[in-house]
Amino acid sequence: MYKRRNFLKTTAILYTGVLAGAHNAYGAINDLATLYPHATKFELPPLGYSYNALEPSIDSPTMEIHHTKHHQAYVTKLNEAVEKDAALHHQTLEQLITNINSFPVTSRAAIRNHGGGHWNHSFFWTILKKDTIPSSNMQKVIAKNFGSIEQFKKDFEKASVSIFGSGWAWVIKDVSGNLSICNTANQDNPLMDITDKKGTPIIGIDVWEHAYYLKYQNKRADYAQSFWNVLNWQKVEELYMAR
Ligand code: MN
After folding, report:
1. Domain for residue 34, yes or no?
2. Rounded to 5 degrees, what are φ and ψ at 35?
3. What is the predicted pLDDT for the residue at 102?
4. Residue-number span of the structural domain to which 141 is assigned
5. How far apart are the CA of 153 and the centre of ligand 1, in A?
6. How far is the CA of 4 from the centre of ligand 1 (A)?
7. For position 222, which CATH number holds?
C-alpha cells in the first residue's frame, strides 16, 4: 500500500512539474527533462516550422544540417554524459547548466559543451520567424536600453562579428530589468554559473561557422545583418515580459 501511495505521489509531483513548466517561457525546453521519471533523457525538440521557412536569410540545407546533425549531436552526447553519472539524473537542462560547478568535475565539460549546446539551440529555434517587427512596446524598451533600434542593431551586429572563433552573441535581461549585449565562447551562455556576464537571454545568435557557412562562407557580417529578417520579435517580447 505504501509503495503504491508513494508511486502516486511521485507521479503527481512529476505531472505537476510538467504543468508548471508549461507556464514558463522556456517551458518547452524544461519539459523535455521532466517527461522521464527514471533518469533524465533529453530529446531533440522539433523546430515547429519547416527547414525552408527562413529562406533566403537562413537557407534550408543549413537549417536541416544544423538541427538534425549539430543539435542532435549535443543531445546525444549530453545523454551519454547523464547515463555515466548518477549525479546528473533527474535534473532539468536548466538545473544542469546553471549549476555546473556543483556537479562532479568529470561531468562538467560535458554539461558545459553539450548541455550548453542543447540549451542554446533549443532557444535559438524558438526566436526565429520570418518578417516580424517589434511592437511599439518593444520599440520603446529597445530605445530605452540602447538609444534606438538602429543603434541596437549596429551594436548587436558588432558583437556578433567580433567574437573570435565560435560562440554566441546575446541580449540579456538582468535582475533590474535592464538589457545589455554580451558574447560567450563556444556553447557557454549567460545563464551558466561559470560565465562572467549573467542574465536571462531574450535574443541570441549562433555565430559558429556551421550556422552560416554554406550560404555566407566567410561573410559573418552579412549573416548577422540577415538575422534581423528572421528574428521573432513576438517571442523576444514574450521572453522579455516573462523574466
Ligand atoms: Mn549551432
Report:
1. no
2. -75, -15
3. 97
4. 136-242
5. 21
6. 44
7. 3.55.40.20
Per the structure, the count of domains in the chain is 3
Mean pLDDT across the stretch 120-146?
Answer: 98
Whole-number pLDDT of residue 30: 53
Residue 181 to residue 61: CA distance in whole angstroms: 29
Residues 146 and 227 grouped into a single domain? yes
Cis peptide before 56, with omega less than 30 degrees from 0? yes
Tell me how far the alpha carbon of residue 65 lies from the centroid of ligand 1, in angstroms.
10
Residue 145 and residue 119 share a domain: no
State the burial class of residue 63 (Cβ atoms within 10 Å of its Cβ: 0-12, 13-18, 19+).
buried
Q: Output the CA 45–ligand 1 centroid distance in Å.
A: 14
Within a domain: 117: yes
Buried b (16+ CB within 10 A) or exposed e, 94-133: bbbbbebeebeeebbebbbbbbbbbbbbbbbbbbbbeebe
Q: Let me know if residue 106 belongs to a domain.
A: yes
User: CA-CA distance, 49 to 31, in Å (whole number)?
Assistant: 19
In the structure grid, which three cell numbers stand for residue 213, read together? Answer: 557557412
Domain presence at residue 206: yes
CA of 47 to the centre of ligand 1 (A): 14
> In terms of Cα–Cα distance, which of 61, 30, 29 is closest to 45?
29
